[in-house]
Amino acid sequence: MSLLRPEQQSGGTSTVLTVLVAAALVLVTMVVSTTLAVQSMTRVRDDSVGYSNLQVAESGQDTFYARAVKANSFPTLRLSVPKTVARTESEARPRAVIDASSRLSTWLQTAGLRTFATSQGNATLSVASVSVRLVKETPSSFDYVLSTFDLLSAANVQQGGAKVRQTYSSAPRSLGLPPMPAALTSAPSVRASGSASVAGMSTAAYPDALKLPRPLTLSEAATLRSGVQSVLRTVDSDLSLLKPNDYVHITVGTQKAVARVDSVAEGVLKVTPSPTFFPSGVNALTLSANTPLDARVAVAAVQAYNSATKFLQLSHPEAYLPGDSVSVQVGSTSYSGTLGTKTTSGGVVGWTVNWSGQGPSSTAIPAGTTLRRRVHSVSSSGSLGGSGNISLTPSYEESAPNTRLATPSNEGLFKQIFGLDSATFYGSVPKTPSSSFNGDNSPL
Q1: Could you tell me the pTM of the whole model?
Q2: Residue pair 163/357 in contact by the 8 Å Cβ criterion
Q3: What dotted CATH number matches 202-299?
């Protein structure tokens, strides 16, 4: 017989049920909390994995061209499709594309460019697409050269992976010479310490010409003669830095000729060697086929000079700034001066120049002569200070009321670097006050 009353027995049962229900609720809450935490951690991990993969994949693309230049290895992509296998150009082109893609893939492997190793993992490059350009049709074949190609950089550092695709082409581009007055240009004052070394460039050290991105290689032998136009049919060459009225330096053995570029089209380069800069006592220079040539584009060659207006017509006027110290060497005579204003004369952009002393006559400067400029070590609208043994070569340019110097008021330096003013630059990026930033970067 139970010693408990019926209401006591019922109360005991209710207590047990209440405890069980409470325990179940706690367990469910713990499971839900744990699941949410795991999902949150998974999302964070997925973001981190995705970023790591993308970073490695981009590194493969970012370093590709520099690695190819360092390896001094470029593919031979002159593609000839016999008319025995393709009767029309529309039939020959797909075959040329397949051939080009296969050769590019082989080149990536043999040149050691397919894989790029990083501290996080490897990026692997592959050919995604190729386009070719018809350069010549002969009675027996259709001849093509590579026009553009897309490389796919893939990384699978962790689960998920990432791929980055980039197009490479032979589109014309500028020399990319920013008109900076100094090796280090600063709007505010410069404070240096330690044993830093900042080197500019004197006019004497200024280079005559820059190497082309890829060696100039001809598909057919050609001959250069003083004052006579020559047609150079190129293959596997990058002519994107050349434009009409540029000057190109071509060296064969110990002989060098400077030639004006008359036209650039479809891999065909027409040039006329300058009589002034043609090897003395040499009637002709023979350029062999399928042999890389030492060819360089003049940094800024004088195209014409008018002594009455002191107007200099240059091949690359964008490489200079008002107030630049410049010089030209004519035979044994050196003329130095300062650039005045960038102006247009007869539809041609050039510079006026203020010579130190007697300047040259209109006919004294041969076309193709390099206009050398002085590049200071440090330029600032403020001052240079600090401690230590800092080396400045050739000199430091103090502040001056000159628009060539970067000043906070005219934003010259900002525009030179970013290509737009600061208001436009900052206006394109959404801003969140630090006091209200919660770590969410989704608006970006």
Answers
A1: 0.56
A2: no
A3: 2.40.33
